[in-house]
Design goal:
This protein is mostly helical. The protein has two domains: about 40 residues; about 210 residues, Orthogonal Bundle (MetI-like fold), CATH 1.10.3720. The chain has 13 helices and no strands. Helix 1 packs antiparallel against helix 13, helix 3 packs across helix 13 and helix 7 packs antiparallel against helix 10. The chain starts with a helix and ends with a helix.
Length: about 280
């Protein structure tokens, strides 16, 4: 029996080698589009059309980044993306936390019905709401106003955020909150000083997911916003597409700038996403 152990170790090493090789190939195909985009952003229009798509830039055009930042209003679009995303994420997470707290911690007759109505929101296609929302915001004089975007992002992200928070809230021990009630703590203090701090792992997860969606969203911004002062990065790319010519290098540079914040946030906080989802999936 002792002679079987070396064979088992060899088989395990071969298995791990095959597994890592497969994962390496998958990782390459996942990462290569980002590398290709960076190389694309350093090319001129002549290189884009005349050279191979996989060719390295002969003379890297770093000026593409300078041009889009200084002449293409990308700095303004970047700032708009940052503050609109930050406000929308904050409102969504706070509202979803309040709703989840009310559903899981308070006893009232319509709690299940309200939860069901929020979950129905997951089944509503985004594009089917464009015309009703446009008409609604038009009557409120919110067309070409950032509030229309913030309200839309908050409403559409609420169902998914509540669904993620529910599992975590059900797993939270009630003993701490019950002790606070006995000590005379109000509902508001229980939520803001006890429950909310305990849910920070899952709140981080939902904040990151909402941030990625809001940052990359295109349809609502393109529909409700027309003036440059409120546009975000996703629609700012259209500035480099003309009737007779298109600056492909500038488009590539804009795309690289737009994905960098998401990559940085995901790189440093990816463990928070896994931690929050895992903790919310375990129901105590």
């Amino acid at each position: 029996m002792e002679g079987l152990h070396p064979k088992r170790n060899v088989l395990e090493q071969i298995g791990y080698g095959i597994l890592y090789s497969i994962l390496g190939v998958i990782a390459f195909f996942q990462i290569y589009p980002l590398i290709w985009l960076v190389l694309f952003s350093l090319k001129s229009n002549q290189e884009v059309f005349n050279a191979s798509p996989f060719a390295l830039p002969i003379d890297p055009k770093w000026g593409n980044y300078i041009n889009v930042w200084t002449q293409g209003n990308i700095s303004l679009y970047f700032f708009n993306s940052v503050w609109i995303t930050a406000v929308s994420v904050t409102l969504t997470v706070l509202a979803a936390s309040l709703v989840t707290f009310a559903i899981t911690r308070m006893q009232w007759k319509l709690s299940k019905l309200v939860l069901g109505l929020f979950m129905i929101g997951l089944m509503i296609p985004v594009h089917s709401t464009l015309i009703p929302l446009f008409d609604f915001f038009l009557k409120l004089n919110l067309i070409d106003h950032p509030l229309a975007i913030i309200l839309t992002y908050t409403a559409f992200n609420l169902p998914l955020t509540i669904m993620i928070l529910l599992g975590f809230y059900y797993a939270l021990p009630r003993e701490i909150e019950e002790a606070a009630v006995i000590d005379g703590c109000s509902v508001h203090r229980i939520f803001f000083q006890i429950t909310l701090p305990m849910t920070m792992p899952v709140i981080s997860t939902t904040a990151i997911i909402n941030m990625i969606y809001n940052w990359n969203e295109f349809v609502f911004i393109n529909t409700f916003i027309s003036s440059d002062k409120f546009k975000t990065l996703t629609v700012g790319i259209q500035n480099f597409i003309g009737q007779y010519s298109t600056d492909w290098g500038a488009i590539g540079a804009t795309l690289v700038i737009s994905i960098l914040p998401i990559l940085i946030v995901f790189f440093f906080l990816s463990n928070k996403i896994v931690e929050g989802i895992a903790s919310g999936a375990v129901k105590g």
